[in-house]
Amino acid sequence: MQVLLAEDDDGVAAALVEVLYDHGHVTRRVRYGRDVLTYHRSSDLLLLDLGLPDTDGLEVLRALRAVSDLPVVVLTARGDERSVVRGLRLGADDYLVKPVRLAELLARIDAVTRRDRAQRVLAGQAVRTVRAGDVEVELDARRVRVAGTEVELTTKEFDVLAALAARAGTAVSREQVLDEVWGDAHHAVSRSLDVHLTQLRAKLRRPDLLTTIRGFGYRFGDPGSGSGPGSGPGPGPGSGLGSGSGGD
C-alpha cells in the first residue's frame, strides 16, 4: 500500500517510514500541507499531522475532502475534544493522539483500509436493491418501502438498515455494525444502536426481519426466505450476501 505521510518532525517521520516499510507499506513523506494536495492521487491512505508549518492540518483535510475520498488517519499531538470532533466531522476516518503505540497505529491503518475496500466493493455492485418479504431497500436511492408504501427513516436509521441489508441473510457482529456506521466514534455512541434498531422495527412493522443474535449481533431477513439483492420478485442473482451492520 502507498501511504502519504504529512509530518514536519523529521524524527517522527523517519520512525514512521521505517515501521510502515517493515509492514509492507511504501511511504512518501511530505512536510507541507500543500504537498498533500499534490500527491494524494497516487496514494492509498494519508497519515496527517495537524501541526504543519504552512497550513493547519484541519484546513488541509477540508481541502482534500472537496476533491478526494482518500482514507485519512489523523496522527497529532492535538488531543483536545474540539479538535478531535472537528477532525472527524471534516472527514477523517480515524484520529490518533501522540504518543501512540505503533501496534495500535498499524491496527488502525488496517481497519481504515478494510472499511474503505468494503465500501468500494459495495459501491461497485450492480444490484443495489434488497428485498425481504414485502420490504424493499433501495441502497443507492436510500429509500425503503413496505408493501409498496415508502417509509421515512432518519439518516442513521437508514445507515444501520443499509449496512445489514447489503449483506442480507448473514449474521453480522454488533462491533462490525458500529464500526461501519460510526467508524472510530462508535465507542461513544454504542448504546444508541439499540435505540435505532427499536425504531427501525417499529417503522418497518416487520420485527422478525431484524433479528438479534444474542451475544453476537444481528441479521436482516431470513436466510431461508430468499431475501437479498434483486430487481424482481423472489431471490435475485445476489442472494445470500452477508448481512450488514447497524450502529449508533
UniProtKB/TrEMBL annotation:
GO terms for molecular function: phosphorelay response regulator activity; transcription cis-regulatory region binding. Residues 2-113 form the Response regulatory domain. Residues 223-248 have a biased composition (Gly residues). Residues 220-248 are annotated as: Disordered. InterPro entries: CheY-like_superfamily, OmpR/PhoB-type_DNA-bd, Sig_transdc_resp-reg_receiver, WalR-like, WH-like_DNA-bd_sf. It comes from Streptomyces apricus. Coiled coil: none annotated. One of its GO terms (cellular component) is cytosol. Residues 127-222 form the OmpR/PhoB-type domain. It holds the Pfam family Response_reg. It comes from the Bacteria. SUPFAM superfamilies: CheY-like. Residues 127-222 bind DNA. Signal peptide: none annotated. GO terms for biological process: regulation of DNA-templated transcription. This is Response regulator transcription factor. SMART domains: REC, Trans_reg_C. The modification 4-aspartylphosphate is found at D49. Keywords: DNA-binding, Phosphoprotein, Transcription, Transcription regulation, Two-component regulatory system.
